[in-house]
């Protein structure tokens, strides 16, 4: 079957890109989705407590005023089910389903040089041909299941937070192990602890976490956001992470200790990701960051009653915000429960999984269920899983053996007509993702419009431009606090054998958007366009 464009993935990226390609560019377009429903990340992440850490009124599309104003969010931070309902609403509103095939996983895509076409194969033995191939697989979709010896021998059930089964799972009266304390682990533990007979949390790296302060949205707030649609849309293009809050222009050192504490307390009580914006230098200067890191540490120590556990939960080996900032609802309070135990994997590492549970260096545990909250092979992993072969039979996994090489995070040399939404080399996971997605989809769509008008056969970035882009990212990352963190998935540290290099673009969405716009204004300088 021949198509103008194939989009892989039916999450936020894929749905918007389908609308742009099909309805605005008039291209014959198909979306191939591995799951049985739209949603992408929010289809798979059904784990207990799954909730977005970006506020609902901005974790959505802003390209359509009608869609923005017609949808009514219920809470400050939407649950997985609510986000899934929202994406289904958008899919119905734009009549997208007829051009999506579900339950098909792309297992390979090969560029046919002589035909200037991509050949795409799925696990259901379907084969498609297209001119443009667009990856909308998301940054956090390749689940990282740790290779722990004995996992296959375990007689109970085990689950990964990023590939949660499509069925109701009860933890009532169960002995449960949770491995991992990143964003998903911090959401899972308080929920599972409510019903489990026991919950044992295995922690490798303690995480800073700020209270979410989730709440139901008032009618007044909902009314105000709808009336402020244009202002909100505009604001999201101007803030570093595409959020609705601005960073303070004041340094933490502009205030005496008393006033500083007052500002921090107010931000802590408000909760949310805006906590890091209460001073302008928290995320930039180590001495400013240290004050805030110690403030959070003290907060946790005051919450957790057992001082030994509190010490383990606050043994931070990295500055606040150098890893993904997390929000929580009663995570630290959970360790005050009698049925919850914390195992520090630095002191007591896992040796293997047994048929009845987990064996560590110092102890053997019996469990009914194991939850892996071990994150993802982020950013590059989902794209590598597509098994791409570019022109002249170049394999992507070999081309990226030392780390991802992209130009602007949008295209890869040697892989003509292949576009990436929110992948390596773009701000992606360092932003409110829908804001980044919209910018990418709109830029890609304008580029395709230009290519179609120019009667182009193919386009790919110049290798030198891509190499310079990777160097630029590394230079920016070295100046930031991000490189102060060990075991950060921003650098691929969580995946054995993965190249250790900073993957996303770290200088913020407005600066990135400006660079992309300049490239467009200069008639896509840095790209080789072959004409018919």
Description:
By secondary structure, the protein is an alpha/beta fold. The protein has two domains: 2-142 and 377-531, FAD/NAD(P)-binding domain (3-Layer(bba) Sandwich), CATH 3.50.50; 143-208 and 321-375, FAD/NAD(P)-binding domain (3-Layer(bba) Sandwich), CATH 3.50.50. 32% of the residues lie in helices and 17% in strands. The chain is built from 16 helices and 20 strands. It has helices at 12-24, 41-44, 65-70, 80-93, 183-195, 219-227, 229-236, 257-270, 286-303, 307-313, 331-334, 381-384, 396-399, 433-453, 463-479, 509-521, and strands at 2-8, 29-32, 100-101, 106-112, 117-122, 127-135, 157-160, 175-179, 198-203, 209-211, 326-328, 340-344, 350-353, 357-360, 364-366, 369-372, 388-389, 418-420, 456-461, 527-531. The strands form five sheets. Strands 1, 2, 3, 4, 5, 6, 17 and 18 form an eight-stranded mixed β-sheet that branches. The chain has a five-stranded parallel β-sheet with strand order 7-16-8-9-12, covered by helices on one side. A three-stranded antiparallel β-sheet has the order 13-14-15, with no helix packed on it. The radius of gyration is 23 Å and the shape is globular.
């Amino acid at each position: 079957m021949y198509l103008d464009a194939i989009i892989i993935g039916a999450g936020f990226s894929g749905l918007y890109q389908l609308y742009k390609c099909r309805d605005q560019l008039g291209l014959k377009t198909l979306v191939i989705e591995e799951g049985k429903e739209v949603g992408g990340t929010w289809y798979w992440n059904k784990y207990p407590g799954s909730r977005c850490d970006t506020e609902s009124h901005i974790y959505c599309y802003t390209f359509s005023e009608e869609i923005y104003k017609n949808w009514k969010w219920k809470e400050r931070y939407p649950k997985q089910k609510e986000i899934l309902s929202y994406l289904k609403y958008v899919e119905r509103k734009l009549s997208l389903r007829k051009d999506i095939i579900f339950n098909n996983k792309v297992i390979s895509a090969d560029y046919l040089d002589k035909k200037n076409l991509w050949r795409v194969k799925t696990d259901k033995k379907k084969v498609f041909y297209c001119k443009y191939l667009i990856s909308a697989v998301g940054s956090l979709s390749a689940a990282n299941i740790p290779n722990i010896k004995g996992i296959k021998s375990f007689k109970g059930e085990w689950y990964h937070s990023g590939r949660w089964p499509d069925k109701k799972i009860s933890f009532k009266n169960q002995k449960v192990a949770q491995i991992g304390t990143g964003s998903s682990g911090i959401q899972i533990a308080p929920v599972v602890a409510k019903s489990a007979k026991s919950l044992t949390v295995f922690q490798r790296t303690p995480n800073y976490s700020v209270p979410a302060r989730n709440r139901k949205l008032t009618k007044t707030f909902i009314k105000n956001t709808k009336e402020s649609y244009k202002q909100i849309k505009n604001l999201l293009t101007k803030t570093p992470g595409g959020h609705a809050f601005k960073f303070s222009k004041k340094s933490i050192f502009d205030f005496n200790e008393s006033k500083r504490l007052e500002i921090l307390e107010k931000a802590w009580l408000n909760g949310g990701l805006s906590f890091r914006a209460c001073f302008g230098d928290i995320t930039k200067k180590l001495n400013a960051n240290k004050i805030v890191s110690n403030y959070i540490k003290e907060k946790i120590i005051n919450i957790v009653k057992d001082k030994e556990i509190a010490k383990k939960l606050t043994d931070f080996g990295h500055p606040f915000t150098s890893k993904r900032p997390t929000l929580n609802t009663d995570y630290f309070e959970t360790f005050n429960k009698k049925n919850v135990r914390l195992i520090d994997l630095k002191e007591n590492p896992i040796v293997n999984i047994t048929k009845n549970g987990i064996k560590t260096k110092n102890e053997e545990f019996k469990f009914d269920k194991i939850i892996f909250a071990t994150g993802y092979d982020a950013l590059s992993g989902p794209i590598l899983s597509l098994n791409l072969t570019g022109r002249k039979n170049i394999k992507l996994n070999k081309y990226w053996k030392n780390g991802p090489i992209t130009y602007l995070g949008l295209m890869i040399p040697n892989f003509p007509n292949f576009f990436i939404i929110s992948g390596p080399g773009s701000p992606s996971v360092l932003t409110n993702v829908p804001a980044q997605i919209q910018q990418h989809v709109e830029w890609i769509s304008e580029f395709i419009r230009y290519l179609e008008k120019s009667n182009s056969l193919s386009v790919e970035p110049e290798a030198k431009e891509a190499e310079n882009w990777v160097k630029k990212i590394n230079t920016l990352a070295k100046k930031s606090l991000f490189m102060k963190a060990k075991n950060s998935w921003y650098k691929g540290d969580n995946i054995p054998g993965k190249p250790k290099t900073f993957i996303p673009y770290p200088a913020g969405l407005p600066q990135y958007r400006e660079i992309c716009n300049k490239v467009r204004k200069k008639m896509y300088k840095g790209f080789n366009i072959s004409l018919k």
